[in-house]
Amino acid sequence: DIQMTQSPSSLSASVGDRLSITCRASQSIRSSLNWYQQTPGKAPKLLIYAASSLQSGVPSRFSGSGSGTDFTLTISSLQPEDSATYYCQHSYTTPYTFGQGTKLEIK
Amino acid sequence: EVQLVESGGYLVQPGGSLRLSCAASGFTLSDHYMDWVRQAPGKGLEWVGRTGDKPNSHTTDYAASVKGRFTISRDDSKNSLYLQMNSLKTEDTAVYYCARTWVWNYLGYYYYYMDVWGKGTTVTVSS
To answer: What secondary structure letter does DSSP report for A55?
Structure first.
């Protein structure tokens, strides 16, 4: 199975900051990488698909990049509502796997 | 409005069985791949399994942790998805989500991503 490793596991940042979360696959997954946002008690929400395509309705401050084994989710100007846990997930082949999550706290 | 609503979560004893349902509205379930994802208390997301769309004969795949115990099925006439869970273990305790998987063909390569999620239903396996 393909393993997904995210870093950092948690971080704290201020409103207006630019930050990045990385996700590494244990083997090449081309661009079959998705990012989700989850707030407590809620279902995950799709942010980015195919590594860099922004899902409809998602603010443009979110962006994704990467291919092969290394991927990045970037938030260009952090907003209070971005406080959440972020997960990467590969869809290269089944079984799909998620990263362990990155918990983002707004200072 | 495109929506998924899960139901059927309950408290069940180890070794027991449970069937979860996922009712779709606003789209035709048979046109899409559908997935089940779960989240144990305080933990991350775990993919459980998926079923293909009608052109792919609704084929199914499962995570190793549930293979042989869980079965995904559909009733297209009811626009509903099911997860039959047998031989339940305490480690199956989780919130179970159903999700629609969108398949995007870009330059001949297929991308899969879960674009619509239900709110989840809670399964507790405990004696």
So the answer is: P
How far lies B74's CA from each of B4, B30, B33, B54, in Å? 14, 8, 11, 10
Q: How far apart are CA B18 and CA A31, in angstroms?
A: 37
Closest CA of chain B from A16, distance in Å: 27
CB contact under 8 Å between B44 and A45, yes or no, is: no
Instruction: Give residue-wise pLDDT tens across range A73-87.
Output: 999 999 999 999 999
| B117: nearest CB among A44, A91, A96 | A44
**How far apart are the CA of A35 and the nearest CA of chain B, in angstroms?**
9
Checking if the pLDDT of A6 tops 90, the result is: yes
Q: Nearest to residue A106, comparing CAs of A3, A6, A7, A19?
A: A19
Helix/strand/coil for B4? strand
Say how far apart CA B112 and CA B106 lie, in whole Å: 11
Beta strands per DSSP E along A19-101: 19-25, 33-38, 45-49, 53-54, 62-67, 70-75, 84-90, 97-98
**Which residues does residue B45 pair with via DSSP β-bridges, in sequence order?**
B39
Q: What are phi and psi of A9, to 5 degrees?
A: -75, -30
Q: In this model, does residue A60 exceed pLDDT 80?
A: yes
Could you tell me which of A8, A12, A28 has the C-alpha nearest to residue A73? Answer: A8
How far separated are the first and last CA of chain B, in Å rounded? 40
